[in-house]
Specification:
Shape: globular
Helix content: 10-25%
Strand content: 35-45%
Number of domains: 1
Order of helices and strands: EEEEEEH
Structural class: mainly beta
Largest sheet: 6 strands, antiparallel, barrel
Amino acid sequence: MSEQKIEVRVTETGNTMQVLVYSKREDRIEVVLGEGVHSVKCELLPTANGLAYVGSAMGREIVYERGRQQVQADVELENHDYRDSRRR
């Protein structure tokens, strides 16, 4: 399985950064910031309006600017069962 990375925005500075996706579901995305012993795990939860995912790591707020429906479509695409699509 290849490592999936997503781009998040740090709200304080407005900078974007690439983070490694640890797990991804419609109701939560777990990401890892940094590498090695200095890495930090962060949980991103959907906003009230469902247009983004937000979380906090080391006192800084980070935002993944994709909606809940877009993430659900991504998860379904990643978990597609190819056995169902074979010819009979």
